[in-house]
Amino acid sequence: MSRPSPARSGLVFAGPTVRALQADDFANPGMLWVERGQKLWSEPVGPSRRSCGSCHADALRGAAASLPAVDAATGRLVNLESRIQACQAQRQGIEPAAHESDALLALSAYVAYQSRGMPVRVEVDGPARPYFERGRASYHRRIGQLNLACSHCHDANWGRRLGPETISQGHGVGYPAYRLEWQALGSLHRRFRSCLSGVRAEMLPQGHPDYLALELYLAWRASSLPVETPAVRR
Amino acid sequence: MVARVRVPAVVRPAEVFVVRIAIQHVMETGFRLTDTGRPIPRNVIHTLAVRYGGQEVFRAELGSGVAANPYLEFPVQAVASGPMVFEWVDDAGIRGSETVAITVAG
Q: Percentage of chain B with pLDDT > 90?
């Protein structure tokens, strides 16, 4: 099992203006979503009139650094977004926010922001093992009309140029991140879809089990890198 | 619409200080098409006005060349403690506003 060494965040491959934008907590446009998420966090909703803050006192500090993880109750792999959706449906009794909706992006950005600076550390053994192996297999599987696997760019050629871009190591530690290309905050699964579109492969819907497994494999690859949410990327 | 405003906590009389504002907005240029080829109508914040100390201290007219989630900063001279009121309107007619307290002391 190989992973890029030393591990370098996508921030290292970004230009100075992008780095400056991420470093300035006021100018960083991702902070607009974090601030919205903070409001949503303490807003009582549903028949029980419970807010996220009614149960989770510390805004889940550190939680984002250890996701995706296997949910003990269902035995299924959950990431931050699906964990929030499950809470909304089961604990708050409301319609869960859709993938890539402003509300889900805001909440996931706010929760991930609480883990900013903390090293990514996910469990890949025990019940998580089959998911991890599935993610590793997708990472190394050739796909699309260009017939490329993730590893061909992000393991074998990171640091080299692809047109005007420098290929990163493909770590998702800054997500949800503000991408200048999107002019908005977006989830890691949206970023997956961009890569798949790039190699002209079929894009899967957000929250797909293959994407969750891939997210776990990527989190393992990024072990020890700090969470950067809300990161800014080109 | 989320907006963030930052001003110094306390300013001295006649001090020139920097005001920063960021507004969450799509700033749709009007030049883009949907997947099916229909034009997406322009929707940008076209006017932002700031009042402080009984007068307008800053006004910006933005266009389609401004990126989404506009961020502006400008200098203002402190006159007296009081509210600074930001008001803006976009092409869809949606108005937003934000107020911060300016504290002049010393």
A: 94
User: CA of A34, closest CA in chain B: separation in Å?
Assistant: 10
Predicted local confidence at residue A220, as pLDDT: 96
Domain boundaries, chain B: 3-102
Question: Is A27 in contact with B26 (Cβ distance < 8 A)?
Answer: no
Chain A residue with the nearest C-alpha to that of B24: A32
pLDDT > 80? residue B42: yes
Structure tokens at A51: 């807010």
The CA distance from B21 to the nearest CA of chain A, in Å, is 9
Architecture of domain A10-26+120-233 in this structure: Orthogonal Bundle (1.10)
DSSP letters, B71-106, are: EEEEEEE--SSEEEEEEEEETT--EEEEEEEE-B--
User: In this complex, is the C-beta atom of B105 within 8 Å of any C-beta atom belonging to chain A?
Assistant: no
Does ipTM surpass 0.90 in this model? no
In tens, the pLDDT along B58-90 reads: 999 999 999 999 999 999 999 999 999 999 999
**What is the Cα–Cα distance from A119 to A226, expressed in whole angstroms?**
4
A183–B67 C-beta distance less than 8 A:
yes
- Residues A32, B69: C-beta atoms closer than 8 Å: yes
Question: A 13-42 residues with CB below 8 A of B?
Answer: 26-27, 29, 31-33, 35-36
Task: Tell me whether B4 touches chain A (CB under 8 Å).
Answer: yes
pLDDT tens-digit readout, A115-142: 999 999 999 999 999 999 999 999 999 9
**Closest-CA distance of chain B to residue A33, Å:** 8
- Decide if B32 touches A, using CB distance below 8 A: no
Distances (CA, A) of A128 to A76, A153, A167: 9, 26, 29
How is chain A split into domains, by residue range? 10-26+120-233, 31-113
Helical (H) or strand (E) element with B21 = strand B16-23
Report the CATH superfamily, name and number, of domain A31-113. Answer: Cytochrome c-like domain (1.10.760.10)
pLDDT band at A1 (very low <50, low <70, confident <90, very high): low
Please give the helix or strand (H or E) that residue A179 lies within, else none. Answer: strand A177-179
Does the structural domain B3-102 have CATH classification 2.60.40.10?
Answer: yes
A31-113: same fold as A10-26+120-233? yes
